[in-house]
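Pilot study result, target chain (447 residues):
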Amino acid sequence: MVLKRKIYNELLDWKNESNGATALLVKGARRVGKSYICRKFGEAEYGSMVFIDFSNADNTLKDFFYKDTYNLDIFFAKISAYHDVPLRERNTLFVFDEVQSFPRARQLIKHLVADGRYDYIETGSLLSIKQNVKDILIPSEEDDIEMHPMDFEEFLWAIGADTTPQLLQSCFEQKMPLGQALHRKVMNDFRQYILVGGMPQSLLAYINDKDFAAADKAKRRILSLYRKDIARFAQGYESKVSAIFDTIPGQLSKKEKKYRITSLGKNARLREYEDAFMWLADGMITNPCFNATDPNAGLSLSLDHRTHKLYMADTGLLVTHAFADKSFSDNDLYKAILLDRLSINEGMIMENVVAQMLRSSGHRLFFYSRSDSDNHSSRMEIDFLIRGDKKICPIEVKSSNYRKHSSLDKFRQKFKHALGDAYILYGKDLMIKEGIIHLPLYMAMFL
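Predicted structure:
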């Protein structure tokens, strides 16, 4: 089955606009589908393709990059013979897959692009950690894009609901409810998306077997791969990375989802774990969300690194990670999500999927938190802040049966001159009430 991915159009735009003037670096977590989409792109858009997986390349191939690049005619002749692929000037794509495993290839991009004969796409994760950029000059002739897990629209395409996204976008733009019957159907699809997640392996397993257990098994394999990567690549601080990774579900299950560094140990200090948090973010395994203490001054300008929340980049993986010690048959969370019976603590799943959708749409993640022990009435907690039309848009994630939004009311009053639209994302159909736009959770992809 061919999975349709939005990033394909971005690859096509790069090819047409760059015309060989730059290479393209596709960044994303392991198993997110980078290799698959780049291979499909090369097969469809070029006369020939040389695909090199540096995580599995032998020394003979690597030697070409060390010993023969002084003469690119010889270098290309050897590459062509080694792969038995004819090279066609301005019609051959080189894909350097998992390029972080061989930094020498990335350093050579400057010279290969300057040569001008062929196009180059690199894929990788953990591209900025020290051992992967040590002793190399990062090429300025390198554009980059991020690849995230499949979003809800891509999920709908995969299950055959091709026309649904257009209808949803039309309703969002017109601020028009879908109607209860259609809303229930889309929410049912959305709950399936939450359970299966956006990693291609788990989605294909679910589609092929029509079974959540098959998807769960695929997700467990991915989580196992991440653990192996931590042990292999987080050199010097692998125990700290593992400790953070293991505590993510527990931190998100709390009412206040800010990451408490003391959960890693009574005497733990943030400065001791900064590299470990950065490793998980750089590998695009997590989506950090930082406290913007003064939205009037701008989100990035008032960012507080000491106060942050840590979401999983894929919500399907979070569901499996949260119950990794149980077999699938014992996992009541699947039933609770599917039947819309989540308790308040398990609402972490809904907040995580919103974070995932906002990141897929290109937003950096910010929230707002103010605690004043002397003045309880001034306390506020806003789940997400995004920028829209030069204004700040606050977003609250609520259960379907919520009764009040006091933090949002106080926030709107305090920062009214800096704010645009305010949103509540919940499980019911679209409505506008008290000046707040209430959106079904699945419409977060349009924000």
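One observation from the pilot: Residues 212-233 form the longest helix (22 residues). A full batch analysis is planned for the follow-on phase.
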